[in-house]
Amino acid sequence: MNENLRKHMEDEHTENTGEGGVPLEAIQAVDPASFLPGSEIMGISAHGASFWTRTARLDTILDGAKQSYFLKTSFGELGNTMMSSEYHCMNKIHAVMPDLVPKTIAWGSYSSIPDVHFFLADFRPMTDELPDIEAFPAKMAELHRSATSPDGRFGFDVTTFHGETPIEHGWSDTWEDYFSRTTKVLFELEQDAQGANEEIRELMVPFFNELAVWRQPWNKIGKPYRMQYHEHFPMSQPQGDYDDRNALYATRVNILDSILYKENPSYREMLISSMKELVGKFPGGLEEWKSAQIDRL
């Protein structure tokens, strides 16, 4: 990938461009403090940057001990669902691995500001430094071993978000059905967001006949982290197709980024490029792949 494009994409993922229409007073008021009974509010100040929310640090004292909280605020019906999603999803992760994510406190709506909603959790200092290449992949592997589906099906019972794009998961009996079903919905959202594109439409047919964020070019947590992860969590079989499967899953993130950053044509260009690469590598689709597996035996 062109280095200038890579740098531009990294910048676009880190810059603050407007905070989703949330009024500034949302991080000046202490409305969510009602969920901290007995705490004395010492201060609230803007903290961090976000495309779609306003975020702040809330400092308190309880029984003489200082305690800080992370406050995220959003606006409108979509913002309400985003805050609910983050609360419930983080609760699920915290229940399995309490040392991996902050403890959640509450989510809800402001009583003092109409149509403004919030998510409140313990405060953790964030930096731009990469996580430890030994510890972080090990934690991810532990999470993936520990967090299992309650009935063996594939999916999730909470709407999740990529930025402000909602992802409805539902449930499927197989991974293949889950992946293809939900990805087809994302393709339709991409067409709605970016406008109809016949090249993508034509590529979708062979693309689905073939039936991860760390692969994205702007993500500094790249291949070394993936390889270290597999020191703790083995590659799925067949291992010879590992990189192609990873590219397939990364294409899903390309779809979401094309939806999210519709003003930037480079994201759709990257989506089309990744689809062409996969379709070109497997022109015969699933049937040809199956035949190749038989030939290997």
Automatic annotation (TrEMBL):
<dbReference type="InterPro" id="IPR016477">
    <property type="entry name" value="Fructo-/Ketosamine-3-kinase"/>
</dbReference>
<feature type="region of interest" description="Disordered">
    <location>
        <begin position="1"/>
        <end position="20"/>
    </location>
</feature>
<protein>
    <recommendedName>
        <fullName>protein-ribulosamine 3-kinase</fullName>
        <ecNumber>2.7.1.172</ecNumber>
    </recommendedName>
</protein>
<dbReference type="Pfam" id="PF03881">
    <property type="entry name" value="Fructosamin_kin"/>
</dbReference>
<feature type="compositionally biased region" description="Basic and acidic residues">
    <location>
        <begin position="1"/>
        <end position="16"/>
    </location>
</feature>
<dbReference type="InterPro" id="IPR011009">
    <property type="entry name" value="Kinase-like_dom_sf"/>
</dbReference>
